[in-house]
């Protein structure tokens, strides 16, 4: 168990290709799997690995994130010693650099008693126990260990993710970007293991020289300076950096094998509980291969879809390959195929919406008084 480690979640993730779901929230708090949020995976992975001191560094649109994580109770992080810490800074800039956020909260890093740090983004969803990676890092004697995933489908998946070029000794030689030109690639999972003193040195160097805007960039551009090793993760991975990847990950969860691996294999994935009534299925409703959350009222036909809490599907409505966020109402006679509908949306009677299997239609979030 990694009691000598602190976890740090850097939520300055690139949102260019998923903005229709991040106008009022960070990627970390996008709903997924009906009742979860994207941040639940990395938080649960850290807690299941024995890390009980976790700092979340965020800079914009964090209301929904703060509401979701709260005191950290669902992850057993509401503690007198250690626990969950949320750092949120504002600035005249449209978005702060993570170096700015870290430099403004160095006291947290200095005061922690743990010796090692695991830094991660939130949008790489997987079920991973960090113990083996941490053991590999300590035994290798490297300055930094970077966790990666091998893929044989780089032209279609993990586009815009960073790629690693490593030698036979697992030493990282250079870092590039997946532009969709090659199939076989080593995808960086944006998870870094290092000593706390190494992190402090990197932050201080970035502040003094003004060379880099982020921890990730500082490491990637200085691999020749540091001894950077790579550790391979062999489980299911999806990077939620675009609407297409979010849609694919959600549809993958309808596969029983993927669901078992993603939610149970290396420990449970925890989330905020709503303690709501079970879903009510009316006579005449048909539900096939779906993830259905609590509190729904279902009267229509639903196939291969993910339905969040408190969704109403009226009689005569037909949903196929859809993702419906909470508090939505699908009125009578609607025909929806390959559609993502954000929170609090009402779809009027007899509406027909049809997207593509790779490029779904997205209905953005509506606000209610």
TrEMBL record:
GO terms for molecular function: glucose-1-phosphate adenylyltransferase activity. InterPro entries: ADP-Glc_PPase, GlgDAde_trans, GlmU/GlgC-like_hexapep, NTP_transferase_dom. Pfam families: Hexapep_GlmU, NTP_transferase. Residues 20-153 form the Nucleotidyl transferase domain. Its EC number is 2.7.7.27. Keywords: Nucleotidyltransferase, Transferase. The keyword Thylakoid does not apply. Residues 285-353 form the Glucose-1-phosphate adenylyltransferase/Bifunctional protein GlmU-like C-terminal hexapeptide domain. PANTHER family: GLUCOSE-1-PHOSPHATE ADENYLYLTRANSFERASE-RELATED, GLYCOGEN BIOSYNTHESIS PROTEIN GLGD. Belongs to the bacterial/plant glucose-1-phosphate adenylyltransferase family. NCBIfam families: glgD. This is Glucose-1-phosphate adenylyltransferase subunit GlgD.
